[in-house]
Amino acid sequence: MILFRTTLSRTGRLRLSLLSLPAIALAGYCGWITWLGREFAPPSRCQGTAVNGYLTHGRRLPYSGENFRAYSLLGYLSGRTFMHGAVRDAVLSSYARVATRRPELRFVYGEGSWPWGGLLWPHRTHANGTSVDFFVPLRTRDGDVAEMPVSVFNKLGYSVGFDNAGRAGDLQIDFEAMALHLVELDHAAREYGLKVRRVIFDSHLQPHLFATREGAKLSGRLSFLGKAWVRHDQHYHVDFGGACG
Ligand SMILES: [Zn+2]
Hints:
By secondary structure, this protein is an alpha+beta fold. 33% of the residues lie in helices and 20% in strands.
């Protein structure tokens, strides 16, 4: 009988534990999300370089806005889209600036940093909240505005490949829209005391960008790198300067 009572008690405790698990997981998850997204934290601080650095009190863009969205809910919720607060404000301003000029365009941003910075595998930079990836704006061959198809099967968009003319199946890079975003990103960065330090974009695709009306303003104004350890054809990587003291 004692044995039975003991067994029953253990079973009860086990049941209680199992019943508690979802509640504990939910509370932890909400705490994680709340902590990740809090806006009342002290100002962001970054240390070191984009390769070997850290971020404190990182901020992130909204998941989506009037003319933009994050690349992946999974990536967003797991905390891979943080950045220095000033960088976040500049990116947000760039989207607002583009919206006033070309409200029909749509943009998708990619990964930034962890809230605390450090290595963000598989990136070699993105360590101190001053690196942000932007997926290329797209149109269909019919000219309709399109967005990067993102799924777990294409590494959240990062394995989508474009040919040297900027085509992938029915999709075509909208170089004019990309140039417009970079022009306004440059303006917005200056507005927040930053600068666009470097843009990484595939060297075969850069001539198409500079050939556009807006792109002509970029050549000589921003520093472009064409070759990196991975091909940057589906996204352009931007390093911001001026945020880290
Ligand atoms: Zn990057």
